[in-house]
Design brief:
There is one protein chain. The chain has 13 helices and 15 strands. The chain has 397 residues and is α/β, with parallel strands linked by helices. It has four domains: 82 residues, Chorismate Mutase Domain, subunit A (Up-down Bundle), CATH 1.20.59; 97 residues, 3-Layer(aba) Sandwich (D-Maltodextrin-Binding Protein, domain 2); 77 residues, D-Maltodextrin-Binding Protein, domain 2; 81 residues, ACT domain (Alpha-Beta Plaits). The strands form three sheets. Strands 1, 2, 3, 4, 5 and 11 form a six-stranded mixed β-sheet that branches. Strands 8-7-9-6-10 form a five-stranded mixed β-sheet. A four-stranded antiparallel β-sheet has the order 13-14-12-15, sandwiched between helices. α1 packs across α3. The protein is globular and about 80 Å long. The model has no long low-confidence stretch (mean pLDDT 89). One of its GO terms (molecular function) is prephenate dehydratase activity.
Length: 397
């Protein structure tokens, strides 16, 4: 009895051709889905419905998971990962459409002058490319040597936007940027989170014990501190950015010198990966803010974040009073950071991120009350939340 499949097996070339056909069909379907997502956004303009409908997203994902399992033998994590990406893209697409309606002057700008830290390929540069690609905006790139130059370039009008890293999941808040926000006239108009994948890079293959000098920005040095502690006799040298560090290592072209940075950028500078995944945390992300001279108008249909800076009196419980105001109006605080006020010893400025639209009744009433009980309060910006939280579903079994 012949137990083999009765159908003749396909050749490798035939299999690859069929895979190519299926990939092309997937691209076509994704394009059609994007068009329909845009139609949904247009319909929401008339109905004033919010962009996200958590209940519908959950129901959709559960249905897809069940169908994938029963009809196509696809496991839940695979389907969930794919459709989280699709849903995120759909939400961002709809938000961009609604934002263009309330900011028509911005939607007509196909080019933007953007200031960021470091050379081409730095993490700030990669964040700039990622953020503005979502807006279908081409960049005129303005490289800066330090964070102050980023803000001053925008303040002077030489750049339309500035991109600044504000916090990292491993090394924490970037204090230099927070301190700049005390005195800048700029507004926060956007945010994004970039996954950070640190590698050890060098011009040629090398052993870890041969490294004598390691170049990078101070932030990656902190984020990879556990790995660095296992290296003996290595001198850490700081550069403007990871891209500048890679450029330096390429120019030196020595067998005892390496850099920390992104593998993709490493290829750009002719470096190869010596060791991957050297950060303290595997899930290493940096949040960036986008600043401009004028605030952005945020559609009320879009989830928004408002950032404040404020100082309180030196009396006991003064900070708690401000937090109770936010609690009373049901406003969720996602970040509270304190920094010393320059020139005023022992006094602090508080930076507060709130999940709330500045134009909401709750937010306006909160600001009115906070103004009365704080020594200083300033709104740094209200901007769309573009870090899309994945739809959560409970899986059986």
């Amino acid at each position: 009895m012949n137990t083999n499949n009765s159908q003749p097996s396909l050749s490798l070339n035939a299999i690859r051709l069929r895979l190519n056909e299926l990939d092309d069909q997937l691209l076509k379907i994704l394009s059609e889905r994007r068009t329909l997502s845009l139609d949904v956004a247009k319909s929401k303009v008339e109905t004033a419905k919010p962009v996200r409908d958590a209940q519908r997203e959950q129901e959709l994902l559960v249905k897809l998971i069940n169908n994938g399992k029963d009809k196509y033998q696809l496991d839940a994590p695979y389907i969930t990962k794919i459709f989280h990406t699709i849903i995120e893209d759909s939400v961002l697409l709809q938000q961009a459409y609604l934002q263009n309606l309330v900011n028509p002057q911005e939607s007509r700008k196909p080019l933007a002058r953007v200031a960021f830290l470091g050379s081409k390929g730095s993490y700030s540069h990669l964040a700039s490319l990622e953020y503005f690609s979502r807006k279908n905006t081409e960049l005129i790139e303005l490289n800066c040597k330090h964070f102050k130059e980023v803000t001053s370039t925008v303040e002077s009008g030489h750049a339309d936007f500035g991109v600044l890293p504000i916090e990292n999941t491993s090394s924490g808040s970037i204090n230099e940027v927070y301190d700049l926000l005390q005195h800048t006239t700029l507004y926060i108009v956007g945010e994004m989170t970039l996954p950070i994948e640190h590698c050890l890079l060098a011009p040629q293959e090398m052993r870890l014990e041969d490294i004598k000098t390691l170049y990078s920005h101070p932030q990656p040095h902190q984020q990879c501190s556990e790995f660095l502690s296992r290296l003996n006799g290595v001198t850490l040298e700081s550069c403007v950015s990871t891209a500048d560090a890679m450029q330096k290592v390429k120019e030196l072209n020595r067998p005892d010198v390496a850099a920390i940075g992104n593998s993709t950028t490493g290829k750009l500078y002719g470096l190869q990966v010596v060791k991957e995944n050297i950060a303290n945390q595997t899930e290493n992300h940096t949040r960036f803010i986008i600043v401009a001279r004028k605030p952005v108008e945020v559609s009320t249909q879009i989830p928004a974040k408002t950032t404040l800076i404020m100082s309180t009196s030196q009396e006991a419980g003064s900070l708690v009073q401000t937090l109770l105001v936010l609690q009373r109006y049901g406003i969720n605080m996602t970040k509270l950071e304190s920094r010393p006020i320059m020139g005023n010893p022992w006094e602090e400025m508080f930076y507060v991120d709130l999940e709330a639209h500045l134009g909401s009744v709750e937010m306006q009433q909160s600001i009115s009350e906070l103004t009365k009980i704080t020594r200083h309060l300033k709104v740094l910006g209200c901007y769309p939340i573009e870090n899309i939280k994945p739809t959560q579903v409970k899986l059986e079994g």
